[in-house]
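Subject: two folds for Thursday's group meeting

Dear M.,

Sorry for the delay on this. The cluster queue was jammed most of the week, so I only got both jobs back this morning. I'm pasting them in the order they finished. Each block is the input sequence followed by the predicted structure tokens. Could you check whether the formatting survives your parser before we put anything on slides? The first protein is the one we discussed after the seminar.
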Amino acid sequence: SEATKTLHLAFGFGIGTAVAAFLFQDISGSHLNPAVSFSLFIGQRISLVRCLLYWIMQFGGAALAAALLWVFNTNVPGTLALRGETVTASGVEAATAQWQGFLLELLGTMAVVYTYLASTNRFRDLIITSYSYPVALGCVLFL
């Protein structure tokens, strides 16, 4: 069913992000999203130069991933087209207003940034180990 496919996609995305955050936390601090890097710069946790370098790598990686998807699969399910249509897991197209897509991306990004900042806050009374925040990040992306 459509709901089962959507649940599987969400679960896979959450687990994949949690694993990526776990693998790269000691290398880059798991800066998987430019919004996270920007929020850490605003919060004075990283310098402007480091933020810009993260952005170059993040946008370059995104462009490379998009190019690979385009080469290997030109009809990628789940992509939001500029004309406001989205292809779901079952291949059925449903109309989505651009403001709805923007709002959903904004809320999702806010949840990711808040989770990252809250779980890596060194002034918290409740100590969260560096290996448990990827789990929190994966859970937020699953939801």
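Second protein, same layout:
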Amino acid sequence: MECIKVIVTSRGLRGLYRGLSAHACRDIPATSLYLLTYEACTTYFTDHGLPVIASELLAGGIAGDISWLFTMPFDVVKSVMQADATERKYSSIWDCTKHVYRAKGIPGFFSGTLMVLIRAFPVNAVTLMVYSQSLKFLNSQRN
């Protein structure tokens, strides 16, 4: 609550939404890639004899990691903009992107990637498997 109070006091209500456009640039393509990869991998693995649960777990982990690899640059820009909620160093997404590039080059857009991928695989594996199994269970209860 203290954080919200400081941001609203220093930047107004708009300050709470700093980085929202960068967040949308990250999440819209990421979610599309995530779900398409999950569906393609699940189909591939089950068609090649892997049990359904194993296919869903493996496909979820792969989908999460691929999605994060693609979206890390957007996430870095979003995080830098959100961390700048009070000073307002960056006038736009593009301004922030140029700053990250000048400061750290291309590798700067992938800062923290290894840790994100290590965390993402098991989280997404379990999340999508549970989601898929829950849907199957709920659909079976309809009939």
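Two things I noticed about the second structure. The two ends are 46 Å apart (CA to CA). The mean pLDDT is 90.

Cheers,
T.
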